[in-house]
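Tutorial, part two.
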Amino acid sequence: MLLNEFLKEHRKIEQQVWKEQELEATVALQQKEIAALTASLKAQASEIEKVGICLESVKLRA
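Running the prediction step on this input gives:
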């Protein structure tokens, strides 16, 4: 009986460890995706700023 209880608890702990590792991997992937999206947004903001400057120069010429 004691062995069965031990094995049940051991399986529970193993499942918790697997779940924790899976969650950690998910978080790591999401952090990479967030970093990539942030870089993309910064690049887009830079391009928008360049277009805005071009439009200003066109308005000043007109």
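Residues 25 and 31 are 10 Å apart (CA to CA). In part three we will examine how such features are distributed along the chain.
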